[in-house]
Automatic annotation (TrEMBL):
EC number, UniProt record: 2.7.4.16
Keyword annotations from UniProtKB, A to Z: ATP-binding, Kinase, Magnesium, Metal-binding, Nucleotide-binding, Thiamine biosynthesis, Transferase
CDD domains: ThiL
Protein name per UniProt: Thiamine-monophosphate kinase
Species annotation: Paenibacillus solanacearum
Binding positions for Mg(2+) 2 per the UniProt entry: D52, D81
Binding site for ATP: Y111, G128, D129, R155, S230
Residues annotated as domain PurM-like N-terminal: 33-146
An example molecular function term from Gene Ontology annotations: magnesium ion binding
Gene: thiL
Positions bound to Mg(2+) 3: D35, D81, D228
Signal sequence extent: none
């Protein structure tokens, strides 16, 4: 980053039309430009605070994501944690660390994606920080959301007898990643990918945080535990099981498998379930609801034009997370998935 100074860069990245519109958003008292932002909470609400980091070569490479996608996904993954609490995202802070020599056009494209996602989910970017780094490009997005007093949906709220649900297809992002890593295309070589690849690449590069589903679950009054899928279905179910002190049985035949995932996995000689259970970065929600309320919840989702799949049940504590296979056998599901510091399953980053 040689041709532009820090302060001019901050103005450049945050001076577009979308950022100006968001800076006027309700609740922004003082936005970008002072030592800190000042925002107003809605009466009777709790703040929800979360941050997620994306770093080059761990979360993306130039062959797996275009610059715009990087910004979009960094915002989307943080917004997803607000969805996982049943909240409404409101404000964001963005920390950007760039190695020397980063092109201004690259960060501008990243920010276009970031603001595109912020605008889609009604998030006002109210500040952040910009530094050089003797390492890889790193983007940390902090999102502040709101929910009614005591209404946040926790991982620890599952109870024995609950049904376990998922809000959509899983495994597509990891399959898209496999495809992109294999193709080794530079972003200039990206074109329109044919079926069944396009939706897999889209799932990897442009995940859709389930804010609407999270809101619906929160308003339903029946949803108990909730979590978003960043590290893979098995890992997220283990988080709910451990936090709630219960066991979870997931039924293989109930897990939805997207046609494009099935086709891709078959062509690769792989099992789609591996992508679903251990892939991650789907940013769908998984959670629990009293079994007797599950059908009504599904009707509410149907009326809103959203899917809700019942994929299993919560059972007595101590049994961990298991899968009831289509062949009738019950097998334990490993507590594995994406883990930054574990190479044990070959999926870790460092
Ligand atoms: N370095 C840290 N310092 C303090 N708290 C942390 C740190 N890293 C994570 N946490 C906290 O640990 C909990 C779990 O974090 P984690 O990042 O696993 O959740 P997540 O964002 O849902 O998952 P993912 O990062 O896979 O999207 C959260 O409450 C988070 O705020
Ligand atoms: C080049 C490349 N290699 C591997 C992956 C897969 N990956 C990285 S981090 C992560 C979990 C979510 O991150 P976090 O836990 O930090 O929120 C996953 C599944 C990728 N996206 N790009
Ligand atoms: Mg995190
Ligand atoms: Mg999460
Ligand atoms: Mg997260």
């Amino acid at each position: 980053m040689s041709s532009i100074d820090e302060f001019a860069l901050i103005r450049l990245l945050n001076g577009g039309k979308q950022s100006a519109a968001l800076a006027q958003a309700a609740g922004v008292v003082t936005g970008i430009g002072d030592d800190a932002a000042v925002v107003e909470a809605s009466p009777g609400s709790h703040w929800i605070l979360t941050c997620d980091t994306m770093t080059e070569h761990i979360h993306f490479k130039q062959i797996t994501m275009r610059d715009r996608d990087i910004g979009y996904k960094a915002m989307a993954s943080a917004v997803s944690d607000i969805a996982a609490m049943g909240g409404v995202p409101r404000f964001a802070l963005v920390a950007l660390c760039m190695p020397g020599g980063t092109k201004v056009e690259r960060v501008q494209a990243i920010y276009e994606g970031l603001y595109e996602c912020a605008s889609r989910y009604g998030v006002a970017v109210v500040g952040g920080d910009t530094t050089a780094i003797l390492g890889e490009l790193t983007l940390t997005v902090t999102v502040i959301g709101e929910t009614g007093l005591g209404q946040a949906k926790l991982r620890s709220a599952a109870q024995i007898g609950d049904a376990v649900f998922a809000t959509g297809y899983l495994g597509r992002s990891a399959a898209g990643l496999d495809f992109l890593l294999e193709q080794n295309l530079s972003s200039g070589q990206w074109g329109d990918f044919p079926e069944p690849i396009a939706p897999l690449v889209q799932a990897h590069c442009r995940p859709e945080p389930q804010i609407e589903a999270g809101q619906l679950l929160q308003r339903s009054g029946s949803c108990r535990a909730l979590n978003d899928v960043s590290d893979g279905l098995a890992s997220e179910l283990w988080e709910i099981a451990e936090a709630s002190g219960v066991g979870i049985d997931v039924m293989e035949e109930r897990i939805p498998v997207a046609d494009e995932l099935a086709a891709f996995a078959q062509a690769q000689g792989k099992d789609p379930l591996d992508y679903i259970l251990y892939g991650g970065e789907d940013y769908q929600l998984v959670g629990t609801v009293p079994a007797g309320d599950a059908v009504e919840l599904q009707m509410r989702f149907k009326a809103a034009g959203l899917p809700l799949h019942v994929i299993g049940y919560v059972n007595a504590e101590g049994s961990g997370v298991r899968m009831v296979q289509t062949n009738g056998y019950i097998v334990p599901l490993g507590k594995k998935g994406y883990n930054h510091f574990s190479g044990a399953d070959g999926k870790g980053g460092a």
